[in-house]
Write a sequence for this structure.
């Protein structure tokens, strides 16, 4: 059975300016032990997709479609049932390690929380397990560190604590939303390697969200490129990098900084900004920024076409 | 922790010295001669001069300031000009009314504020929230002396549950005294509680938007468990700040309500002393109030550090 199967996922946000279609008709699936990368620039719906999976959208958000985890549709679950799934079957790491931990509780207490909640461990058992987890994510002196407050740890250490917390109940799927964006470049690789190693060890599914095509290309089995709330290109990571089909993916690839080139050539950008999700254009959402756009693009949304069995693009 | 504590304590002492100087200076500048007020405007010049000498008011100001402060160090407040009794005798009774009244009011306010504020925040933008915030707006707008009259009419005159005013004295039994203070405390607590309830609500709502609250929810904690375990403590810092300020205001600013209930508290005492130009009483009472306010701030500072470990780290 497929671990995660998402069908026709739509998220709308009721904003003061109108209804924003933050996520449109997403379809993807994830097998056990597999890694899916979701790529796109800010505001393309990556984080909204993640929060929709967790059932943690802000109040103004509404989700439709199907999110099947182990064959059960999460969108039909009650809030109480979702509380048993979050942190237990489905865990998440966030972008900002500096603000994602509660400043007034020790990190130990915060790691122990899901253990006691989902696994029913006693305080002593949870404490011992928290020490083991801290040690596993590479925090030195875990026995002492467990009594530290978040402000006593560095950004990288805090993200390690977040990872320990997310993995504490051995979830089926880990969602990592830009887990390294706020960190030093030197720390980024360590954190990504740690996540990969742990995911591999536990055999769980990983959804890695990033705006960095480099990060995603190195760490995933398959990729979904999102633009304006919709998937514009999906496929196996290798196939996608063999042949970048969608002009947006090509743009993202070209926008990766290249060392050893002249100043102007080092960073290529995609002109313009992401479309307004409240007033989406009738045709292709990328028209205004696309070097290949024609009059047809403006009026008709492009269909998804299969390039081969393992690669598709709009 | 000890560095934090010592720093705050030093601030307390320096503030008190500064406050005593300002109080003394203001009373020096204040027009009106105590001797003239005691003897009446028609008193002969010689009588006024001799009374001034008797009260020691002819000596230079720095000398009198030093006498006052050194007296306080030895636990002496001096004698009232108007009543010829030790100032402490006048102050003691008033403090034993005003302090319990302020404590009762702030206790009622905080309980009221937490219940209303948390309920409103948990039901954000729903009917309950909107109704409670409407009522609290009303609570803030009502002058407390008018509310005092309303609660007297309802609870004392119509229902006859509680006395309409006066204070029996602590010798008459604690229960009787608490009953006498309950209505004034309710009148005072309504306004303070309404202010605090709104702050509690907005503070809780703000903390609910924090990243770590999302983390807590992602762990599988329910909305309610998140509120108790992660939101409440973080949301208490602004509430604590305003509680401290409001408590200070309750200690010093209850004179109108004291008058409505005919309670001989500190406010009434100061007012009478100012009218009598009994400057030594005014100075002592105002300094006492300043001490209480500064002490409350000191306690609030300590509580900040208890709530939020980051604040301790900054000071050490």
């Amino acid at each position: 059975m497929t671990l995660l199967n998402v069908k026709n996922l739509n998220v709308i946000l009721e904003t003061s300016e109108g209804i924003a279609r933050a996520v449109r008709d997403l379809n993807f699936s994830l097998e056990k032990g597999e890694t899916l990368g979701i790529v796109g620039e800010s505001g393309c719906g990556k984080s909204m997709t993640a929060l929709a999976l967790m059932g943690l959208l802000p109040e103004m958000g509404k989700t439709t479609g199907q999110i099947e985890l182990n064959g059960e549709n999460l969108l039909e679950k009650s809030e109480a049932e979702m509380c048993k799934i979050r942190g237990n079957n489905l865990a998440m790491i966030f972008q900002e390690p500096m603000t994602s931990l509660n400043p007034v509780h020790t990190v130990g207490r915060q790691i122990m929380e899901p253990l006691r909640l989902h696994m029913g461990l006693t305080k002593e058992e949870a404490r011992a397990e928290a020490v083991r987890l801290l040690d596993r994510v590479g925090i030195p002196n875990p026995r002492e560190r467990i009594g530290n407050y978040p402000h006593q740890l560095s950004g990288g250490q805090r993200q390690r604590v977040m990872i320990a917390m997310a993995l504490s109940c051995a979830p089926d799927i880990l969602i990592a939303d830009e887990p390294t964006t706020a960190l030093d470049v030197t720390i980024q690789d360590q954190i990504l390697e740690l996540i990969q190693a742990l995911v591999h060890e536990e055999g769980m599914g990983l959804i890695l969200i990033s705006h960095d095509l480099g990060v995603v290309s190195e760490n995933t089995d398959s990729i979904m490129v999102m633009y304006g709330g919709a998937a514009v290109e999906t496929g196996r990571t290798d196939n996608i990098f063999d042949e970048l089909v969608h002009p947006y993916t090509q743009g993202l690839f070209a926008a990766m900084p290249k060392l050893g080139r002249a100043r102007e050539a080092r960073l290529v950008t995609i002109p313009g900004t992401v479309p307004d999700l409240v007033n989406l254009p009738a045709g292709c959402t990328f028209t205004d920024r696309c070097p290949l756009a024609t009059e047809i693009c403006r009026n008709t949304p492009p269909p998804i076409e299969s390039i081969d069995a393992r690669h598709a693009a709009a | 922790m000890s560095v934090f504590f010592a720093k705050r304590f030093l601030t307390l002492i320096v503030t008190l010295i500064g406050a005593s100087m300002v109080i003394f200076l203001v009373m020096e500048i204040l027009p009106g001669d105590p001797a003239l007020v005691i003897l009446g405007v028609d008193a002969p010049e010689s009588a006024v001069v001799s009374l001034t000498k008797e009260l020691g008011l002819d000596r230079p100001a720095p000398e009198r300031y030093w006498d006052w402060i050194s007296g306080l160090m030895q636990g002496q407040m001096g004698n009232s000009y108007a009543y010829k009794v030790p100032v402490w005798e006048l102050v003691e009774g008033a403090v034993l009314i005003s302090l319990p009244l302020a404590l009762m009011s702030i206790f009622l306010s905080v309980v009221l504020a937490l219940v209303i504020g948390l309920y409103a925040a948990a039901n954000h933008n729903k009917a309950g929230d909107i109704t409670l915030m409407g009522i609290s707006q009303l609570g803030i707008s009502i002058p407390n002396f008018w509310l005092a009259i309303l609660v007297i009419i309802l609870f004392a005159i119509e229902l006859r549950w509680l006395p309409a005013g006066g204070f029996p004295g602590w010798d008459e039994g604690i229960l009787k005294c608490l009953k006498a203070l309950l209505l004034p405390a309710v009148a005072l607590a309504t306004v303070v509680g309404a202010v605090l309830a709104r702050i509690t609500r907005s503070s809780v709502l703000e903390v609910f938007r924090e990243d770590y609250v999302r983390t807590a929810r992602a762990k599988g904690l329910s909305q309610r468990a998140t509120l108790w375990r992660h939101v409440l403590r973080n949301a208490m810092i602004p509430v604590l700040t305003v509680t401290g300020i409001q408590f200070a205001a309750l200690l010093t600013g209850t004179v109108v309500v004291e008058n409505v209930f005919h309670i001989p508290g500190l406010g009434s005492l100061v007012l009478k002393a100012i009218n009598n130009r009994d400057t030594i009483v005014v100075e002592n009472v105002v300094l006492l109030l300043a001490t209480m306010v500064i002490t409350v701030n000191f306690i609030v500072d300590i509580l900040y550090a208890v709530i939020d470990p980051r604040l301790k780290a900054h000071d050490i």
Q: What stands out?
A: The mean pLDDT of chain A is 84. Residues 185-202 of chain A form the longest helix (18 residues). Chain A is about 35% helix and 25% strand. The two ends of chain A are 28 Å apart (CA to CA).
